[in-house]
């Protein structure tokens, strides 16, 4: 009897974990609302009142499911945020390289917008977390550009 209960709980836990991960990782809404996921509400431990053994086991099981669902949702949010930061970093780097004078742009199409555009692009790149080496190169190009520009 105990083995059957253990196997049943293991199977249910596996199915619930698969469902929770699927829901967390395939959320069709890119801007999720602050309201909780219906599965998180369904499997919340407070939804299993009572003091008998079955209610206690159901609360324990629901607690495990709730933790798994919350961890999967947190991981999905972290992945999304990491992707957004990486995209902003790439865009800032590309904008900085486009604002560089042609001979400093490493074979890419260089911009001729002047020192002010390069200064703004460097500031945006610093804010986005572009590598310090690329920023240093852009700052060197900016100082050379300002040195040969008439004031």
Helix fraction, binned, reads over 70%
Which ranges are low-confidence, i.e. pLDDT below 50, for 5 or more consecutive residues? 107-111
Shape: rod-shaped
Number of helices: 5
> Which structural category do the helix and sheet elements fall into?
mainly alpha
Described by strand count, sense and barrel closure, the largest sheet is:
none
Beta strands, count: 0
Rg is 27 Å
Termini separation: 89 Å
* Mean pLDDT across every amino acid position: 78
Strand content: under 5%
Q: Helices and strands, in N-to-C order?
A: HHHHH
Structure notes:
The protein is mostly helical and 151 residues long. It has helices at residues 2-25, 38-42, 53-99, 115-128, 132-148. The chain has a domain at 89-148. Helix content is 71%, strand content 0%. Helix 1 runs parallel beside helix 3 (53-99). The radius of gyration is 27 Å and the shape is rod-shaped. Residues 107-111 have low confidence and may be disordered.
Structural features:
71% helix, 5 helices, mainly alpha, 0% strand, rod-shaped, 151 residues
Question: What is the strand and helix layout of this fold?
Answer:
Elements: H1 2-25, H2 38-42, H3 53-99, H4 115-128, H5 132-148
């Amino acid at each position: 009897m105990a083995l059957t209960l253990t196997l049943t709980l293991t199977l249910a836990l596996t199915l619930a974990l698969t469902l929770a991960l699927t829901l967390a990782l395939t959320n069709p809404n890119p801007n999720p609302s602050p309201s909780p996921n219906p599965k998180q509400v369904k499997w919340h431990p407070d939804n299993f009142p009572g003091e008998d053994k079955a209610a206690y086991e159901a609360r324990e099981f629901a607690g495990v499911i709730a933790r798994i669902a919350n961890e999967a949702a947190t991981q999905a949010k972290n992945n999304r945020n990491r992707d957004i930061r990486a995209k902003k970093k790439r865009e800032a780097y590309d904008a900085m390289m486009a604002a560089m004078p042609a001979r400093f742009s490493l074979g890419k199409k260089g911009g001729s917008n002047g020192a002010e555009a390069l200064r703004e692009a460097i500031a945006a790149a610093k804010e986005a977390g572009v590598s310090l080496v690329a920023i240093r190169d852009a700052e060197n190009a900016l100082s050379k550009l300002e040195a040969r520009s008439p004031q």
